[in-house]
Here is the input.
Amino acid sequence: MWVIFVTARPFICRGWLDEVQFVQDPPSIRLASDGGNMLNLEATGTPGTRVEIQASVDLIQWNASTIAPLTLEGGRATASLAQQGNQMFFRLFVSP
Here is the structure.
């Protein structure tokens, strides 16, 4: 599983143990809509990329938000998640 780290430069570093790759167009995640107790998130990126959305309330403990990785069909995928508390953080893991 790849981990995405945001750097101070306008690109993303993806690393697995001792392997590091720099990409110009990394996958991204955004809040598509807020439907009360449900959050609709949209992941975008290169078509065919497999990503896992993870959520945290404290930036320390991270949990998978989806049962299985999402495949970015046509460059995007959406997921509806139950809101847990007043503040949540999300990140993407890129799966091989």
The chain has no helices and ten strands. Confidence is low (pLDDT under 50) at residues 1-11.
